[in-house]
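Before the break, one more example. Copy the sequence into your notebook; we will annotate it together after we see the structure.
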Amino acid sequence: MAIITRATLRCPRCGKPQQAEMPVDACQFFYECRECHEVLRPKPGDCCVFCSYADVRCPPKQAGST
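Here is what the structure looks like once it is written out:
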């Protein structure tokens, strides 16, 4: 299975979707929305902002390493 490294995040504050490149070897804990500048943090129980707000889980989750 190929690891997907590009995801679409949707800001919970302004609702704007934005394309982002995911790190392949780590989880990303913070992400600043380009529209409203809200700093996104993972929801409780999620390892990173991509698992909380993106259309694709982070690469470590896709690979089964977290």
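The two ends are 17 Å apart (CA to CA). The chain has one domain: 6-63. Try to locate both features in your own notes.
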